[in-house]
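Handout, tutorial session.
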Amino acid sequence: MIYWKTLLEGWVKLNTDGAYKEGSAAGSGGVIRDSHGGWLG
């Protein structure tokens, strides 16, 4: 199970992921969250 773990006050967390299919396409994405779980970008 994947879940959000609370950070220390004032910290931010960057989660990223990517995928690649040989000879075809690639993609990536990410999210930045503050210590309250709010999205920053």
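The second record follows below. Compare its token runs with those of the first.
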Amino acid sequence: MQRYIISDRREPVLQSSSYSGMALQRALQHALQQVLQHALQQVLQHALQQALQHALQQVLQQALQHALAVLNPVFPTS
């Protein structure tokens, strides 16, 4: 049979034999926090990887264009 107690914040808390309501709430909050942190880390890691790839591509493209502009008078293509 389930019993309800009143917490300090006047919210009903489920009382069970293995977990108190507050302990269960803390465990669930911790698990949810871990899941959300992992998801956020994955999203941020993907976004950072995409941004770095784009930036590196831009830098390499500009370096290649600069090198071609420098070499073009030496080795004309036409």
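Points raised in discussion: The beta strands are 3-6, 12-15.
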